[in-house]
Design a protein that fits this description.
Shape: elongated
CATH topology of the largest domain: BirA Bifunctional Protein, domain 2
Number of helices: 14
Strand order of the largest sheet: 3-7-8-15-12-11-9-10
Largest sheet: 8 strands, mixed
CATH superfamily of the largest domain: Bira Bifunctional Protein, Domain 2
CATH architecture of the largest domain: 2-Layer Sandwich
Strand content: 25-35%
Radius of gyration: 26 Å
Number of domains: 2
CATH class of the largest domain: Alpha Beta
RNA sequence: GCCGAUGUAGCUCAACGGUAGAGCAACGGUUUUGUAAACCGUAGGUUGCGGGUUCGAUUCCCAUCAUCGGCUCCA
């Protein structure tokens, strides 16, 4: 009989202590723990493994990410589309998913027809492309969708929000000519870099090249790989090459993010696809009138909202920057006679579209402050006799503590600036 | 899916063969407070679900679902 034994060894006591400190910190930042503590999300046995319930607090964070995403995509020439979450099995025969991913898909039968809960969005996007004739003149076409998909992941692979069975990809498919895809890839890299910088996330990039059993011509693979390398070099970004690790349908660039435990997670990915456009018989008319097959790029920026936000929770240790914070300000009247003035401040905040809450419970100021701190609310406005006299508010931040009294109007202006710029200014 | 572990109140945990207990949260009351927890009280559980062993199971056994650590796989 074989017995497996795991051990971790250290040369010195200091190394051991460092390791233990790191574990403790990782536990403190664990998104699953913070998910309960901060009332962000839950998983329920009766719903099913790997299916996330987003609570109102995390709903706010998601909305902010989605708003930012839509704005950036509109700005960068994407068309936003919506497609169904299920499709007849026939569609997945065309795409080849039934052949390759059968074990990972959810099937159902209705009216003696087989349907599939979609594991990917691409087939739908290609059908939209197919809906009309295309000319080289209107390429590239960029279809984007926050597409929710379902994949039957192995039970042992599930992990909090970062590895689940139902998730929303911030997906897009770009249809372009062979002369355009390098430029398109550079544009995507820009968007990824811009987005990850916004969250102060560090990443590493991996380029995966042609595997055994690839589809498409050697010529286009070489052009594609060279194109990806060229794009990386022109962007002056370091990357490592995973020789032969590309998908059978095309080479790809993967952006890896780290969680609190130092584990790396796949985030953004940019994949060239020489296969699906052929399977779906996609065409466009070239200058000379001939019909050509477009190059398709699959790409995600966040990857999935579930995983990305899980990583963000750990990255910020639950203390979201003001623009993302579920609750941005708590107004704390010290005694009952301060509630009226506090309420007027609260109404002003609300009118300014700032996520605020008036804590007018008959609890002590210290209790309210503690609760706001525990909930990691970025700002507290404490209101007492002094503040009412001077038309001010005593400002406390979750990180710097008491900042003293400030003019209410001026403070709200700063706060608004901080939210709009998505950067800390106070 | 595999190897190992765990599942007790909303949360964090205790009790471990003799009809479940605390703190916090919730609710009611008192208190009106100056920068991280005022005080008193009330309520809350077929111990994940199903079976078995036993006079008796939260406790032991089996199965199942879920979670956790690792492997494999992936966004």
């Amino acid at each position: 009989m074989l017995q497996r034994i795991y051990a971790t060894a250290f040369w010195t006591k200091e190394d051991l202590k460092e390791h233990l400190d790191k574990l403790e910190e990782a536990e403190r930042r664990d998104h699953r723990k913070l998910g309960t503590q901060l009332d962000l999300f839950s998983l329920r046995e009766e719903v099913g493994a790997g299916l996330v319930l987003w609570h109102p607090n995390l709903g706010v964070v998601r909305q902010m990410l989605e708003d930012y995403w839509r704005q950036e995509h509109r700005r960068r020439g994407y068309d936003i589309i919506y497609t169904p979450h299920i499709a007849k099995s026939q569609l997945w025969d065309i795409s080849g998913h039934n052949e390759h991913f059968k074990d990972n898909m959810f099937y159902m039968e209705v009216d003696e027809q087989d349907y599939v809960l979609r594991p990917m969005n691409c087939p739908f996007h290609m059908l939209i492309y197919q809906a009309k004739r295309h000319s080289y003149r209107n390429l590239p076409l960029r279809y984007a969708e926050l597409g929710t998909v379902y994949r039957y992941e192995r039970s042992g692979a599930l992990h909090g929000m970062t590895r689940v069975r139902g998730f929303t990809q911030d997906d897009a498919h770009i249809f372009c000519t062979q002369d355009q895809f390098i430029e398109e890839i550079k544009r995507i890299i820009d968007l990824v870099d811009h987005t990850l910088k916004l969250f102060d996330l560090e990443y590493t990039i991996e380029l995966s090249t042609r595997p055994e059993g690839f589809v498409g011509s050697l010529e286009i693979w070489e052009k594609a790989e060279a194109g990806l390398k060229q794009a990386m070099e022109e962007k002056n970004l370091p990357y490592v090459i995973n020789e032969g690790d590309g998908a059978f349908y095309g080479p790809k660039l993967d952006f890896k993010l780290k969680d609190a435990l130092g584990r790396t997670w796949q985030g953004a990915t940019i994949q060239l696809d020489f296969n699906l456009p052929i399977r779906f018989d996609l065409k466009y008319t070239e200058k000379d009138g001939s019909l050509q097959t477009p190059v398709m790029i699959h790409r995600v920026i966040y990857g999935t909202l579930e995983r990305f936000i899980g990583i963000l929770i750990e990255h910020y240790a639950g203390a979201f920057p003001t623009w993302l914070a579920p609750e941005q300000v708590v107004v704390i009247p010290i005694a009952e006679r301060h509630v009226e003035y506090a309420n007027s401040i609260y109404n002003t905040l609300k009118d300014m579209d700032i996520r605020a809450h008036l804590d007018d419970r008959s609890e002590s100021m210290n209790y309210k402050i503690r609760e706001a701190q525990v909930n990691k609310v970025p700002y507290m406005m404490v209101i007492g006799d002094r503040e009412i006299e001077t038309n001010q508010a005593s400002i406390r931040t979750r990180t710097k503590g008491d900042l003293g009294s400030k003019d209410v109007k001026e403070f709200i202006e700063l706060l608004k600036q901080e939210i709009d710029s998505k950067k800390s200014v106070i």
